[in-house]
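hey so u asked for the seq, here:
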Amino acid sequence: MTQEQIQTYTLRVSQASPCELVVIMYDIILDDVKNAKQAKEQKEDKQYQADLNHAGKFVNELMEALDFSEPIAFRLMSLYIYVNKMLARARVSGKPDSLADVEMVIENLRAGFDGIKNQDTAGPVMQNVQQVYAGLTYGRGTLNETCLNAMDYNRGFNA
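ran it, structure tokens below
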């Protein structure tokens, strides 16, 4: 992942509700699969393996976060197991053929969670984070982001 992608995801995570976090995790998996395909085309096998390992870690995190008191969790688990199997097949074989199945499953799940994220009224998961506003100032060809209370380092922690 590039440094710009990491910064973008960090900002999204800091403002996300629980449902939006799942959507973000799906986006990361899709980016990792896309990056792995590009790495394979450029004959960068080490980067290919690293991207698939990173995607696998996020799939494992999604599996661990399931609440099996809900009936849908069992169906999600079977899909995550399938995705994990396809990622492992791509890692072991060194061929990105099975990544199309991974993308299809994750994109469908992402669409579903993206559709219901507005119904999640829990609010942001992270508390005491800086508010970021985009568009207050403009740079040459870019949109600048401004953090309010940037000098307030306390954020609720006292020693």
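The chain has one domain: 3-119. The mean pLDDT is 82.
lmk if thats what u needed
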